[in-house]
From TrEMBL:
InterPro entries xrefs: TerB-C (IPR028932), TerB_N (IPR025266)
Residue ranges annotated for the TerB N-terminal domain, each copy included: 96-261
Region span, Disordered: 15-36
Domain (TerB-C) ranges: 426-562
Name of the protein in question: TerB-C domain-containing protein
Length: 567
């Protein structure tokens, strides 16, 4: 352990003397390297250096010669991408690769994505490369230079209608743009481009199908489009993907399910009347919606109500979507189990329920519509609906506006039935050709021997062909004129022109004393049933309904018009 003794004494050691170099000590007197080979610097990067003299012998300094620095070539795309990224830096982005699943991160990323997307909405590119890209919830901020150029080049071609295969993350990025209406003129244009891209890209990768099908429904809820979602899926043959919507005939099934009166259980709802009722209901609902809206009443809100416990709803689940559009307060009923409500630009979801008043209101609409249909179709059994059983503020508001819900329904049904059963007069062009052929035959029959023709020559007579054809045309003209004049008259004027004097007197007898009708028919030598059927048939042709019921009594709805007719 002596080597670690701190008290150990060290002896001094003599430093060897420095060896002297012969000569004067100049650089020329230094030992020369024998057989030195030249050193090559080919292919190496180096600076050109100058050895400068110094006052001190054997000492010098290196001096770097000035070099010309070339300016790098300007890259406009890189500068554009930098400006885009600056939006994220100045907007408080919480961007984090590892927390893409975090809800707050997704919301922040969606906000940044929308801002950057609007900034880049018109960018085009022609990059020759093809950089791969794979990322959950992709957006511009996580993409490198080559990936951005690849995407915008591909998007340029897609907007021209040339959809090609590419990394799936690029496809979802483009879908996110369309959902946010980035680069489209309006929501309808966005929907058209969404459908076009989906159909084209699905050929390469069907994994987008399940997302797009879900987003299409959200698109119709979030954006206020002119058509309904049901009309959209029917037009595009997508009903198999939305089974709950397939049976919704303008919400006919939904209204029947919540109505106090289910018209589907009626004996009238059978055979050809099924389509009649459903079509008429569709027509009636459109009329009612417009009438209610004109009087400050929301039709759906008058019928449906959500459950008390509402669930927050965000459109376009599993998409990077920023709710950029300010939404008006409204509610959308899609099916018996789906109602979406927007209140102060926030959406909520619930199943559908109806209040007792709402069930009464829709029940009355259904029943009164059927009653009116039974009347215009001359159904053997009549039906009545009592408006007094409905205790709904919508009815009260309509009354204050001077409107009767019963009259609104009856008028709508009458308008629908008249349009459905109207007679269209069509002139058969082949009939004119036949008339000309018959005129030629008539001409041949009118040709007489020459002497008689000379006797007749003194009298100015039309050409026989002209005479015959003119006669036929006059007959046709009178027929068409009569038909057109009849069609231009109102239904009651037309009926009056068709009724005989006996039939008009019969209506007068019924109106004043029904018991005398049989006696009047006997006096005229006509069976009572034949007389009544003749009147009803003409009434059906003119106004689509009978005047007399099975008891030979004039319907109350038409008594005033009959009084004017016979007066």
């Amino acid at each position: 352990m002596d080597e670690y003794n701190i008290n150990k004494k060290y002896e001094s050691v003599k430093i060897p003397e420095r060896q002297q170099v012969q000569g004067e000590g100049t650089a020329n007197d230094w030992p020369q390297r024998k057989n030195a080979e030249p050193i090559s610097f080919e292919g190496e990067t180096y600076y050109e250096i100058e050895y400068d003299s110094c006052p001190m012998p054997g000492v010098g300094k290196f001096v770097m010669k000035s070099q010309k620095i070339e300016a790098p070539e300007k890259d406009e795309k890189r500068e554009l991408f930098s400006q885009m990224r600056e939006l994220a830096r100045t907007s408080g982005s919480t961007y984090d690769y590892t927390k893409f699943y975090n809800r707050q991160v997704q919301q922040d990323n969606a906000r940044i994505f929308y801002k950057q997307g609007v900034f880049m909405k018109d960018v085009t590119d022609d990059y020759p490369g093809n950089a791969q890209f794979s990322q959950y919830f992709p957006y511009y901020q996580m993409m490198g230079y080559e990936q951005l150029r690849t995407y915008f080049t591909w998007r340029t071609e897609v907007r021209k209608g040339k959809v090609t295969d590419i990394s799936l993350s690029y496809a979802f990025l483009y879908l996110y743009e369309l959902l946010g209406n980035i680069g489209v003129s309006d929501p309808q244009d966005g929907l058209n481009q969404l459908m076009s891209f989906w159909k084209a890209f699905s050929v390469y990768n069907k994994s987008i199908d399940k997302y797009v099908l879900r987003w299409l429904k959200d698109y119709h809820i979030y954006y206020d489009l002119t058509h309904s979602f049901k009309e959209f899926i029917q037009k595009n043959n997508l009903t198999r993907h939305y089974p709950k919507m397939d049976g919704m005939d303008d919400s006919f099934s939904l209204f029947c399910a919540v109505s106090k009166y289910d018209i589907r259980k009626s004996t009238f709802f059978a055979g050809d009347n099924v389509s009649l009722v459903m079509d008429c209901f569709c027509f009636l609902i459109k009329k009612l919606r417009q009438t209610f809206e004109n009087n400050g009443i929301h039709f759906e809100e008058a019928i449906f109500q959500p459950t008390k416990k509402m669930t927050e709803w965000k459109p376009f689940k599993d998409a990077l979507f920023y709710p950029w559009k300010k939404q008006p307060d409204r509610q959308i009923v899609l099916s018996e189990s789906e109602i979406y409500i927007c209140n102060k630009n926030k959406w909520s979801f619930s199943t559908v329920i109806t209040s007792e008043n709402g069930r009464q209101l829709i029940g009355y609409l259904m029943k009164q519509m059927e009653a009116a249909l039974r009347t215009v179709t001359n159904y053997k059994y009549k039906l009545t609906a009592n408006i007094d059983t409905v205790n709904h503020e919508a009815v009260t508001k309509l009354k204050k506006a001077g409107l009767s819900l019963e009259n609104i329904i009856n008028n709508a049904v009458g308008e629908f039935y008249k349009e459905m059963t109207k007679t269209v007069v069509i002139v058969d062009q082949t009939a004119l050709s036949r008339i000309r052929q018959e005129a030629l035959v008539t001409q041949e029959k009118l040709i007489v021997p020459e002497p008689e023709a000379q006797l007749l020559s003194a009298v100015p007579v039309q050409n026989p062909l002209d005479f015959a054809f003119t006669a036929k045309e006059d007959m046709l003209s009178e027929l068409l004129t009569e038909t057109i004049q009849t069609s231009q008259l109102g239904p009651w004027e037309s009926l009056k022109s068709m009724l005989t004097e006996i039939e008009i007197d019969a209506l007068s007898v019924v109106l004043h004393s029904n018991s005398e009708l049989k006696k009047y028919a006997d006096e005229c030598g006509i069976m009572l049933e034949v007389l009544v059927d003749g009147i009803n048939e003409k009434a059906m042709d003119c106004m689509g309904d009978n005047l007399l019921d099975e008891e030979f009594v004039i319907y109350d709805d038409y008594k005033e018009q009959v009084k004017e007719l016979i007066g």
